[in-house]
Automatic annotation (TrEMBL):
GO terms for molecular function: transferase activity. Keywords: Transferase. It comes from Bradyrhizobium manausense. Gene3D superfamilies: 1.10.287.130, Histidine kinase-like ATPase, C-terminal domain. Residues 91-210 form the Histidine phosphotransferase ChpT C-terminal domain. It comes from the Bacteria. InterPro entries: ChpT_C (IPR018762), HATPase_C_sf (IPR036890). This is Histidine phosphotransferase.
Length: 217
């Protein structure tokens, strides 16, 4: 019988494993649009008919735009995004969030003022948006509201959509009740918890009627 720890009591990943899992998460987000670009180029290599050529070019344009938006978002949400102690403009965060998340199924209502906030708070906000998006798999609306003001501002995101739900295990990963599984999906809410802790906050996820509320406080 194995004496390895269960997933509920697994130890936290070390720095190397955390970096590897976050890299896997970024690759997971990019593989689809990059693969579509490759497919479009292969169609062009086959000297297609004019209508197929236009289809391939349109696929490449859309996929390149998607890949660029996801890269910009991931750089800010998961990457260094400036020196230690840097501040980030919430207006830039809004642009990147909309470019990454708004895809025809999901839209964002952004009720935050435009100001500079500490880097980790903005990274926390973007990761909260990713968590919120998972609660409305069929699409819907994410409404972002401030809690407090100034440099101490925190956030509340309301996710509304058909069959809004609490994804399995995410609440436990955010609260620390469950250890992260060694995969790119679980590492994102776990990383969100680490960002919240760095800001002196905690993130909660709860169902209220037909909406899911994600709060950092």
């Amino acid at each position: 019988m194995s004496d390895a720890p269960s997933s509920a009591t697994a130890s936290a990943p070390d720095m190397l494993e955390l970096a590897a899992l976050l890299c896997s998460r970024v690759c997971h987000d990019l593989i689809s649009p990059v693969g579509a670009i490759v497919n479009g180029l292969e169609v062009l290599d086959d000297d297609p008919k004019p209508e197929d050529r236009e289809f391939a070019l349109d696929l490449i344009r859309k996929s390149a735009k998607t890949a660029s938006a996801r890269l910009q978002f991931c750089r800010l949400a998961f990457g260094a995004a400036g020196s230690s102690g840097a501040q980030i403009d919430l207006g830039d965060a809004q642009t990147m969030a909309k470019g990454h998340i708004e895809d025809g199924k999901c839209t964002i209502t952004w009720n935050l003022p435009r100001l500079l906030l500490p880097k980790n708070r903005v990274k926390l906000l973007l990761n909260m948006l990713v968590v919120s998006q998972h609660t409305i798999p069929r699409g819907g609306l994410l409404t972002v509201d401030p809690i407090g003001e100034g440099a101490a501002m925190s956030f509340r995101i309301t996710a509304t959509g058909h069959n809004a739900r609490l994804p399995q295990n995410i609440s436990e990963l955010l609260s620390g009740e469950r250890g992260p599984a060694a995969d790119a999906h679980a590492i994102q809410p776990y990383y969100t918890r680490l960002l919240a802790q760095a800001c002196g906050l905690s993130v909660t996820l709860k169902l209220e009627g037909e909406a899911v509320i994600v709060t950092a406080s």
